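Sequence and structure are no longer studied apart. As an example, we show below a sequence and the tokens encoding its fold:
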Amino acid sequence: MTMPENLENVVNDFAAAPMELRIELLVEHAENVAPLPARLAEHPELLEQVEECQTPFFLATEVDDDRRVQVWFDCPPEAPTTRGFAGILATGLNGATVEEVLAVPDDFHYAMGLAQAISPLRLRGMDAILFRLKRQLRTA
């Protein structure tokens, strides 16, 4: 599986964790969602809504001159599992190159053991977040 090193580390942490701790780990990653910078917070129209998510979820990607990625997420604290997945993506993808992010397997979360811990509906939301993130990078 090809992934940026930071994302691979997160995946390995989840895979090594006992099943009963995976949801707790996921919720802990919700803390890794940084507040939106003013340029996005003041212009929410710059964020794309991920309509497949059960909760209001928005994202934006930025690419710097070195083709390094920065991802931004806006999702309510009342949605800890979705916010946790956003935190995983922020931790794992920020600073990676566009090529590294595009190479992330669309189903990488299965290697984390999340399919046994959360509902298929939430997994589809996670798939949609990664799909839209990659689509933004392809069109950037």
User: Anything to note?
Assistant: The mean pLDDT is 94.
